[in-house]
Design brief:
Layout (H helix, E strand, L loop, with lengths): L1 H5 L3 E2 L4 E3 L5 E3 L1 E2 L8 E2 H11 L11 H20 L6 E6 L4 H14 L5 E5 L8 H6 L2 E5 L13 H10 L4 E7 L11 H10 L3 E5 L22 E5 L10 E6 H4 L12 E4 L4 E3 L3 H4 L7 H17 L1 H21 L3 E3 L11 E6 L4 H12 L1 E2 L1 E3 L4 H14 L6 H4 L2 E5 L6 H16 L1 H6 L1 E3 L5 E3 L6 H4 L2 H9 L5 H13 L1
Parallel strand pairs: 4-17, 7-8, 7-9, 9-10, 10-11
Antiparallel strand pairs: 1-5, 2-3, 6-12, 11-12, 13-14, 15-16, 16-19, 18-19, 20-21
Helix pairs in contact: 2-10, 3-10, 6-7, 11-15, 12-15
The protein binds pyridoxal-5'-phosphate (PLP).
Length: 490
């Protein structure tokens, strides 16, 4: 019932665009795993809040108090959304999950300098792999394939054997809660139990799961509780909001501050300073992204009211439909995980014999369908999935064109009609492959461009026109055109 009503709550869900044949089409957004569309009511709530906006480092005046209350509410709201009210704190940092993951990798390697080893699964996004490689003395990658080379995710028996073998040096296990390539959901609570049994922490990359499935960081059995969980606001319908790190307070308390500056100190003299004893202050040097934090918490509040279990259920049904649909189209190959359960709605595929970039372009240019292509910042995993196909390519110059996939991913606004549109598009492409291929040429840099059609982005969003329009109530025509004159003189 609820899903259809939601579409119009998301900014950009009703976009139309002109395709390569000059037809106006409704844009279909299937790139939610990269960034979700913005939830308009949260933007509205944030606009309402902005009337009272002030810096939370001010404390006495009305707006400062309202801002401080909004941030305190948002902090609690984020924690309760992830079942982390008791003994957990949240830190808002950077633009997405990458920043807090770096913060943790550096902080934990400093905190436990005697523990040199980190276990990282082979299906990680680079943001949950490279920071550990950069800061830990040793990273061991956890296998994700079975004996036949088929994708299986993290095998708990193998993982436990690894932990046992490296017990003395093991600092933490870093694993994604859901893969951005295969959609596979990782058994994070089982992994937490294994990690804790061997004296290690668990760092969970929640970037792909936060908006799509329920998470309960504090478990009844504390051995199964998650130590650190990281996610991105822009993947939870709140672009413009920060990345978030949620961690056990007693562990976060032990980390040295990441940044130094205003707000994180209790006392500064000419010769010395003392870092604040309050975790929230210690972790937030400088001014917070207050509107972003508020908008994020507002969005999570909405998701909670809808219910994360029903969101997960609904998205599972759509994902099942998507996978089954893809499997019925001749020449389409779905990668790594074709199961319908224990997964989120990120599905990676290719059409045999068609470079991934070309397929994504055709979907955009002819069908107004937005998907992601390439390696999704998970090169080791994607290349592993493609290895057999790549071996079969005889002409080595063609290899780079096939080192990637196309990914369709869903969000709260996705409905069956969107997936049927993808089905229609893929069927047309498979049936008329030679025609579509002939419309493109390959550049020297190995990118495809349409021979006649050019995406006229200015036709949709022109920065100059937008500013002129927005400024017109406040600036005279002369002042607005002064800008144009300066541009001309430059
Ligand atoms: C699983 C996963 N982890 C981490 C990231 C990095 O997130 P961000 O770009 O928001 O820092 C992404 C982004 O796609 C992701 O999918």
């Amino acid at each position: 019932m609820w899903c259809n009503d939601f579409k119009k709550a998301f900014i950009g869900s009703e976009l139309t665009c002109i395709n390569a044949e000059g037809k106006t089409l409704s844009r279909i957004y299937l790139d939610s795993a990269a960034s979700t569309l913005a939830f308009a009511p949260a933007q509205q709530a944030t606009q309402a809040f902005l009337k009272y906006y002030a810096n939370t480092h001010s404390s006495v005046h009305l707006s400062a108090k309202i801002s401080s209350e909004a941030v305190a509410w948002a902090h609690q709201r984020v924690l309760s959304f992830f079942g982390a009210t008791q003994g957990y704190s949240a830190v808002f940092q950077g633009n997405g999950a990458t920043s807090p993951l770096n913060r943790l990798a550096r902080g934990l390697s400093e905190l436990r300098a005697d523990k040199s080893t980190v276990l990282v699964s082979l299906m990680e996004h680079h943001s949950n792999d490279l920071p550990h490689r950069a800061h830990a003395k040793k990273v061991i990658h956890i296998n994700i394939q079975d004996a036949t080379g088929e994708f299986q995710g993290v095998d708990l028996i193998e993982l436990e054997a690894l932990c046992k073998a490296h017990q003395q040096q093991l600092n933490y296990i870093a694993v994604t809660a859901a893969s951005n390539v295969s959609g596979h959901i990782t058994p994070i609570y089982d992994i937490a139990e294994i990690a804790h049994k061997y004296g290690a922490y668990i760092v969970v990359d929640g970037a792909q799961i936060a908006a799509h499935a329920p998470i309960q960081l504090a478990q009844d059995n504390p051995q199964r509780s998650i130590d650190f969980f990281v996610f991105s606001g822009h993947k939870t319908y709140a672009p413009g909001s920060p990345g978030v790190l949620i961690g056990k307070t007693q562990l976060l308390d032990q980390l040295k501050p990441e940044f130094y500056g205003g707000g994180m100190v209790s006392e500064v003299s000419k010769f010395d300073y003392s870092v604040s004893g309050l975790l929230f202050d210690k972790e937030h040097a400088g001014t917070l992204n207050i509107p972003g934090i508020f908008m994020l918490a507002t969005t999570l509040d909405f998701l909670d009211r809808v219910g994360m279990y029903s969101i997960y259920e609904k998205e599972c049904m759509l994902t099942q439909y998507l996978i089954e649909m893809l499997q019925t189209i001749e020449g389409v190959k779905v990668y790594a995980n074709t199961s319908n359960t224990q997964r989120i709605g990120a599905v990676s595929f290719n059409i045999q014999g068609l470079p991934h970039e070309l397929l994504a372009l055709i979907l955009n240019d002819y069908f107004a369908i937005a998907v992601r292509n390439d390696c999704f910042c998970a090169h080791p995993f994607v290349r592993e999935c493609l290895v057999d196909e790549l071996w079969e390519i005889e002409d080595e110059t063609q290899l780079p064109l096939y080192q990637g996939m196309v990914r369709a991913s869903i969000g709260l606004y996705t409905n069956k009609a969107d997936l049927q549109a993808l089905e229609h598009a893929l069927t047309c492409i498979v049936n008329n492959k030679a025609y579509y291929v002939s419309q493109y040429k390959l550049t020297d840099e190995l990118h495809f461009v349409h021979k006649t059609f050019k995406l006229e982005t200015q036709q949709y969003f022109n920065i100059e026109d937008t500013l002129t329009n927005c400024f017109s109530d406040y600036l005279s025509k002369e002042k607005i055109s002064m800008y144009e004159q300066r541009e001309e003189m430059a």
